[in-house]
Amino acid sequence: MNKTKRVSFFKYIIIAGFLPVIFAFVIKPEPAGVKWQQLFNGKDLKDWTIKIKGRDLNDNFGNTFRVVDGKIQVNYDHYKEFDEQYGHLFYKKPFSYYLIAAEYRFTGNQVKGGPGWAFRNSGIMIHGQDPATMTKGQDFPNSIEVQLLGGNGSGKRTTANVCTPGTQYVMNNSVVKNHCMDSNSKTFDGDQWVRVEALVLGDSLVVHYVNGEEVLRYQKPQTDPVGNSDNGTLIKSGTISLQSESHPVEFRKVEIINLEKFAAKPEQLKKVIEQLMAVKRVAKQ
Predict the structure, then answer these.
(1) How high is the pLDDT of residue 279?
(2) What are the boundaries of each domain within the chain?
(3) Which among 89, 106, 219, 265 counts the fewest CB atoms within 10 Å?
(4) Residue 240 three-state SS
(5) Per-residue pLDDT tens digits for 106-138
(6) Is 59 helix (H, G, I), strand (E, B) or coil?
């Protein structure tokens, strides 16, 4: 082996020796015993239940919820007018301690008759009621809404806000009764994909993330109070649903990490969450 080849060979050995170290810092696997579960199989709406205002359970009026090219579409091309027909697509089982994620984008134009506030507006409803218990004319399930908003091309319009149909929560040691509160996210104009995650820990804590950045946190999700009380009943678990509010939207991924097995192990739960949130998951365009 000549001198040049020996130098190249030793360079290869040195680089190869450092590769495992380099990848150890770059690749951050999920914590042991924790993995993402796909709620949407990319093919159909198996395991999901539909409830549209004014319609019976699983009456998918106008084919509002559909799967096209491997994505859940919320579409209104068969509507003459929106007519306040708010809809929700519910996953089949409730959750309590979890990290829920969805990648979404708004498309097209709002259907005729959609309210102005619903322009590029959808949501991930967490800690929600069973759709079978909703009345036929009920607008939204009692739930905490991780509100999804798209920019309107002018000014700031944050996403992963919180809204509270039939609910409230605590922030800075005070009960918040405002229907909606903005996050501190950036504005996402156009039809770009956005990843939103919500860490939900039973009746104690909810944290919203957008493309890997924390944008909002609050505590003690609860029902609206009864009578003269300021406090409602704490919500420990509930359904997860995707919203239909009059503007077309697509979801290409809906996934969850179930953290229930750590609920009674606070130190282990804290460690798992720290490991999970050390990874910045950003939607690819």
Answers:
(1) 95
(2) 1-30, 32-277
(3) 265
(4) strand
(5) 999 999 999 999 999 999 999 999 999 999 999
(6) coil
Residue 16 pLDDT > 90: no
Residues 83-108 pLDDT 10s? 999 999 999 999 999 999 999 999 99
H or E element at residue 19: helix 3-26
Average pLDDT (243-266) is 98
E strand segments, the chain: 37-38, 48-52, 65-68, 71-74, 87-91, 97-106, 121-128, 144-149, 161-163, 167-171, 174-176, 180-181, 194-201, 205-210, 213-223, 239-244, 249-258
Residue count (the chain): 285
Closest CA to 258 of 242, 274, 271, 269: 269
Q: Which two tokens stand for residue 134?
A: 């909703």
The answer to whether 230 touches 223, Cβ cutoff 8 Å, is no
Residues 6+ apart with CB under 8 A from 75: 63, 64, 66, 108, 248
Return the closest-CA partner of residue 51 out of 244, 190, 180, 238: 244
In angstroms, how far is CA 276 from the centroid of its own chain? 16
Host H or E run for residue 210: strand 205-210
Q: How many CB atoms lie within 10 A of CB 6?
A: 10
CATH code for the part of the protein at 32-277: 2.60.120.560
Q: Three-class SS of residue 218?
A: strand
